[in-house]
Structure formats: structure tokens, C-alpha cells
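Severity: low
Component: inverse-folding endpoint
Summary: output formatting inconsistent between runs
Steps to reproduce: submit the following C-alpha cells with default settings.
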């Protein structure tokens, strides 16, 4: 079990963080990597004491997607309110906090800067350590919230920016065993949603519509790749575009629900098949879903059905699937990929 020593920024005192610190750790975390401004307080990586999310969806509907400059400005407007609410909801003050954490990447640089600087400011003002957190790691850690999940397990990380199968060997060791070679799954959802005329945010709207359509109405292609655990969604995107163009000529009204259902069936069965194979190959009986697309109804259905075969399947509660700060606090506590000093900078992509 991990433990790391961090230092307070003013008096340079050591503070132990992690399951082996021997003390309760109460972590205040901020998330602002994309279009949610969030703050949360979590005790010992699992017990959520407060969870506040201000969504920018309403603003971005107007533009049909996230405009980085607009997002950064909205974060600036929301951040102080969200921080105050997180303290209030938990009934705590800054003195009760063991350390402050914030997402440092990957994400939109302007947006990340707002959250990270707020986190650093809180750390300096209260002389508590600052912990920089990797957003992708944090999505996986969302599964520790309110559960007793422990590694080892296989995680399927599916979000707007990433699609990865990860072998989580311990709290600190993670190995990517498959990933997308082009588009992320969330991106594919959002693009196909736009093609059939659904409003932003595309993924969840396509999911809803798909539930009313026939998943076998149209056959869409599946990419064949060298590494059997890798993914590719760009060919599927093109095939979906071509199908929609063809159907527009044939039908007076586009059969949107059937297209949505056929697309959803195609991608969810690919994600399911590859992840199960990876888990079986390394003898893992625990599979964990993470990231915004883990909120998808069909993905959850397919994986949860594996419980009947003796697998343990975890997926975060809906509110912890999409971006939130509780997962950032949990990740700061369990320590994989964290950095604890004020010199740390934001980064937009994994290099
Ligand atoms: O993890 P997340 O909140 O942000 C990133 O870190 O990317 O994921 C956002 C992505 C978006 O592409 C969104 O359309 C997708 O998750 N998403 C869904 C669903 N809910 C959110 N995709 C499919 N079905 C859903 N129910
Ligand atoms: Zn995310």
C-alpha cells in the first residue's frame, strides 16, 4: 500500500499522504480540464464529503461544442463559488484539509490553469501541500469512491479524449495494453451525433435515441488492427457519414434512431469483446469501467451481464463517470501519477 511525503509550501513541513500514512487524509480537489468546474472533499480516497459540479453545457449548446476561450472564462466565473460550496456542503473549513489537489492535465490549457492556480493559491494561503493529478488516472480512481475495490483489475477508460484498456496491477502501477490509434470513443459518439443532427452533448443524446432504435438495422464496419487490444474509430466515422448520406437520398425522413442504435451496437460490442479478451488473457476477474462514456447504457448492460459468469464489474455512479473533482481527490490519495510541488505546470496531452 502506498504512501508519499509531500511538503507544505510555506513552512516546508512534511505531510504523509496515502493509505499507509497512518492518519485520516482529507483532500480538497479541483477539476477544470474541460467543460465542468468542479470541487470536492474526499476522506481517505473513498468517502465523498462533498461534490460540487458547475456544468457549462448550457453555454456550449449555443456553439455546438466546447470553445476553449469560452470554457476558460466560464471556469474563472464559477471557480470561487464552486470552492465555497464544496466547503459548505462538507461542513469543513480549510484548517480541516490535509492537502489541496487539482487536475494538471491532460485537457484544455486555459481551463486547466484556472483550476490548478486556484488549488495552488489555497495550498499557499493555508500552508498545506499541493498535489497535481493526472485526469486519466483519476477517471479510473472514480471506481474507488464509495466502494471497496482494490487492484489488481483491468480498466476500460472511455472518455471524450481517450480509449484505453489498462492493466492496474497495484495502486501505483498501471500498464496500458491497448488504446485508440486515432479518434477517442467519446469523440466518435459526438461526431456521429452531430451527423444525425443531435444537439451537444452528443454522446448522451445519441445513447438515449439508440435505446428506441433497432441495433441491427444497419451493418457498420469494425477495424482490424495489429494489436488486438487497440481501437480505431475513424473508419467507422466515415462509414457512418456515407450511410447517412445514402439514407438521406432513400428516405424522406432519416431513420435516426436505427442509425444511432446500429452505431451504438457496433462500438459497444467492440469495446466489450476486446476488454473481456484482455481480462481473460491476464486472468483478471475484475473489470472496471471509467470515463464519461462509461455512463453509456449499452456499455453498462453488456459488462454488467458478465456478473452472471462470476466476474466482478465496477462502474462509477453516473455523477462520478463524467468529469468531477471527487475522482481527482481519490487519485491524489492513491498517488499514481501525482506530483507534489508548486513548480508543476499544466499539460494538454500525454506525451
Ligand atoms: O470523461 P468525460 O466527462 O470528459 C473527458 O475527459 O473527455 O467524457 C466526455 C465524453 C463526451 O464525449 C460525451 O459525449 C461522452 O463522454 N458521454 C457519453 C455518454 N455520456 C457522456 N457517450 C456515450 N453515452 C453516454 N451516455
Ligand atoms: Zn474526463
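Observed output (run 2 of 3):
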Amino acid at each position: 500500500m502506498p504512501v508519499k511525503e509531500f511538503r507544505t509550501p510555506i513552512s516546508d513541513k512534511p505531510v504523509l499522504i496515502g493509505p499507509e500514512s497512518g492518519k485520516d487524509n482529507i483532500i480538497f480537489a479541483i477539476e477544470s480540464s474541460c467543460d465542468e468546474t468542479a470541487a470536492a472533499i474526499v476522506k481517505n480516497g473513498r468517502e465523498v464529503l462533498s461534490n460540487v459540479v458547475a456544468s457549462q453545457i448550457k453555454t456550449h449548446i449555443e456553439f455546438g461544442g466546447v470553445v476553449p476561450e469560452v470554457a476558460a472564462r466560464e471556469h474563472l466565473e464559477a471557480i470561487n463559488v464552486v470552492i465555497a460550496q464544496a466547503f459548505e456542503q462538507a461542513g469543513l473549513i480549510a484548517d480541516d484539509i490535509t492537502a489541496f489537489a487539482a487536475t494538471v492535465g491532460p485537457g484544455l490549457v486555459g481551463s486547466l490553469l484556472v483550476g490548478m492556480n486556484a488549488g495552488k493559491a489555497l495550498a499557499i494561503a493555508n500552508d498545506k501541500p499541493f498535489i497535481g493529478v493526472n485526469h486519466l488516472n483519476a477517471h479510473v480512481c472514480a471506481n474507488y469512491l464509495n466502494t471497496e475495490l482494490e487492484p489488481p483489475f483491468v480498466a476500460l477508460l472511455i472518455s471524450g479524449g481517450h480509449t484505453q484498456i489498462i492493466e492496474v496491477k497495484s495502486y501505483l502501477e498501471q500498464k496500458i495494453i491497448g488504446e485508440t490509434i486515432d479518434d477517442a470513443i467519446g469523440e466518435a459518439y459526438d461526431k456521429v451525433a452531430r451527423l444525425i443532427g443531435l444537439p451537444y452533448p452528443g454522446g448522451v443524446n445519441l445513447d438515449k435515441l439508440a435505446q428506441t432504435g433497432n441495433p441491427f438495422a444497419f451493418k457498420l464496419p469494425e477495424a482490424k488492427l495489429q494489436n488486438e487490444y487497440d481501437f480505431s474509430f475513424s473508419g467507422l466515422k466515415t462509414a457512418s457519414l456515407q450511410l447517412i448520406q445514402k439514407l438521406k437520398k432513400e428516405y424522406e425522413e432519416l431513420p435516426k434512431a436505427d442509425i444511432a442504435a446500429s452505431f451504438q451496437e457496433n462500438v459497444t460490442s467492440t469495446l466489450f469483446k476486446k476488454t473481456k479478451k484482455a481480462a481473460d488473457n491476464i486472468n483478471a476477474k475484475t473489470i472496471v469501467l471509467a470515463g464519461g462514456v462509461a455512463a453509456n447504457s449499452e456499455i453498462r448492460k453488456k459488462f454488467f451481464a458478465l456478473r452472471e459468469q462470476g466476474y466482478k464489474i465496477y462502474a462509477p455512479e453516473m455523477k462520478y463517470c463524467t468529469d468531477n473533482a471527487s475522482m481527482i481527490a481519490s487519485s491524489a490519495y492513491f498517488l499514481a501519477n501525482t506530483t507534489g510541488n508548486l513548480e508543476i505546470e499544466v499539460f494538454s496531452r500525454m506525451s
